[in-house]
Design brief:
- The structure is a single chain.
- It contains 15 helices and 16 strands.
- The chain has 3 domains: about 5-80, Orthogonal Bundle (Arc Repressor Mutant, subunit A), CATH 1.10.10; about 100-110 and about 355-455, Aspartate Aminotransferase, domain 1; about 140-350, 3-Layer(aba) Sandwich (Aspartate Aminotransferase, domain 2).
- The strands form 5 sheets. Strands 4-12-11-10-9-5-6 form a 7-stranded mixed β-sheet, sandwiched between helices. A 3-stranded antiparallel β-sheet has the order 13-16-15, with helices on one face.
- The chain is of the alpha/beta class and about 475 residues long.
- The radius of gyration is 23 Å and the shape is globular.
Length: about 475
């Protein structure tokens, strides 16, 4: 195979040969010139083509493996991974020609009794006969709609944050909110902070805007205050946090940790971008960070995990100094918010459907988490009391990519640490999502497969470059 531009790979100032080659191949992957699943030339073939030692190419492939961009399968070759690096390729279960049980994506679990289907059918029937149907289908700008803002107040109140209608902006999902916040607060080249393992789409947004991403060390409560304080010496623009049921590690900040993080942010003048998407899945009582930091705290509360991802509704509490700019950016990036989703959320809040769906999600999550505790007992998994995912540190000598490949071979799709890391120093670990399996029997099958893989160990398993 031919890789474009290889003749210019080493025309870089003061860069090691292996690093220059790794950077070139990484850029080709990000541009889509090297597609997911594509096999790279052999190390010997590439070394001969470039006139360098095989060791140089080996080190370049190892660097790509560390970045989560390729996997090396002994006896087969080196392949571009399905996801990794700054970009994220979502295929939601279509990861193989074979049918895999999906534990890779953090989806809300289906509810027994077809509750969701009934809720949507009832909602759409009501919309079809509504007096304001035609108006609902026209252009709709919730930023100037007091009803939409009031709806947002009710939603964030359930998450633990008191806000007035004028403080809230409605966006087309949390990803739109993240992008708009970064556009508002940052310029190309600025640094933004996040957890050392973080939501991949935050990195995608930061990369698209040419921002530098700094990952901070974590413990069981999330970001370490000392790491945050040290990073503030570099004058970052903001810190992005998921303080409740953090994705992917499940960490939840206690009250003291929240106060400490807010105190550092206030002292150093760093904005907080708080994504509280899991707030209603956790035990009530945690006060959002932004409640204590109104002057520079952005609070994101999405309906995705509780109601349905396709609704694309996120209510954002924006500091007063930025609201006018954010309104313009939302219109520039999205033009309008899907009015049907807003209409459904409002009706469901009024008729009690939201309470039923939230209660159902929590009950189903608790049942699935209990199954995971039983199946993975003694494996060191971090299994929270709520939410739809768990974090599985892998025992030595497992490597993350080898574990992912073995799980796929045995019929289960999982996501490993490479997808979440903004920098080097990857842990050997996997995120297992409990909402993807269609029902509890399918989840039991998937958990059984994972347990058998762990019990057998990685002997004779393919390694990662």
């Amino acid at each position: 195979m031919t890789i474009r531009g290889l003749e210019k790979v080493f025309n870089q100032e003061a860069k090691a040969l292996y690093q220059a080659l790794a950077d070139h191949l990484a850029q080709a992957i990000e541009r889509g010139e090297l597609a997911a699943g594509q096999q790279l030339p052999t190390q010997r073939e590439l070394a001969k083509q470039l006139g360098v030692t095989t060791g140089t190419v080996t080190r370049a492939f190892q660097e790509l493996g560390n970045r989560g961009l390729v996997s090396c399968e002994v006896g087969r070759g080196t392949f571009v991974r399905a996801f990794g690096g700054g970009g994220v390729r979502h295929d939601f279960g279509r990861t193989s020609e074979r049918s895999l049980i999906d534990m890779a994506y953090n989806l809300p679990p289906p509810l027994p009794g077809d509750v969701e289907t009934q809720a949507f059918r009832a909602g759409f029937r009501a919309l079809a006969t509504a007096d304001d149907l035609v108006r609902t289908m026209h252009y709709h700008f919730p930023q100037t709609d007091p009803d939409a803002r009031q709806l947002g107040c009710e939603w964030v109140r359930r998450c633990g944050l008191a806000a007035s209608p004028e403080e809230l902006i409605v966006t087309a999902g949390a990803q739109n909110a993240l992008f708009v916040a970064l556009l508002c607060l940052c310029r190309p080249g600025d640094e933004v902070l996040c957890e050392g393992l973080t939501y991949p789409s935050f990195r995608s947004a930061a990369d698209a805007l040419h921002l530098r991403v700094g990952g901070l060390a974590l413990d069981e409560e999330g970001v370490l205050p000392a790491a945050f304080e040290e990073a503030c010496r570099r004058k970052p623009k903001l810190i992005y946090l998921v303080p409740t049921l953090q994705n992917p590690t499940t960490a939840t900040m206690g009250p003291a940790r929240r106060r400490e993080i807010v105190a550092i942010a206030r002292r150093e003048g760093v904005a907080i971008l708080e994504d509280d998407i899991h707030a209603l899945l956790a035990e009530p009582g945690a006060t959002p960070l932004c409640a204590e930091y109104p002057e520079a705290g952005w609070y994101l509360a999405s309906t995705d995990k509780l109601l349905a991802p396709a609704l694309r509704i996120c209510f954002v509490r924006v500091p007063g100094a930025h609201r006018a700019a954010v309104e313009r950016l939302v219109q520039a990036t999205q033009w309008m918010i899907p009015a049907v989703g807003l209409w459904l959320v409002q009706r469901w809040l009024e008729d009690g459907t939201v309470e039923r769906l939230v209660a159902g999600r929590r009950t189903e999550a608790a049942a699935r988490l209990a199954m995971a505790r039983a199946s993975l007992a003694g494996c060191g998994a971090r299994i929270p009391s709520g939410g739809f995912h768990l974090w599985l540190p892998l025992p030595s000598p497992w490597r993350s990519d080898a574990f992912r490949l073995r799980a796929a071979e045995d019929g289960v799709a999982v996501t490993t640490a490479e997808a979440f890391a903004p920098g080097p120093g990857l842990p050997q670990a996997a995120r297992l999502c409990l909402g993807g399996p269609r029902d509890r029997p399918e989840l039991a099958k998937a958990l059984g497969i994972i347990r058998r893989i762990l019990d057998r160990g990685p002997a004779d398993m393919r390694s990662v470059c």
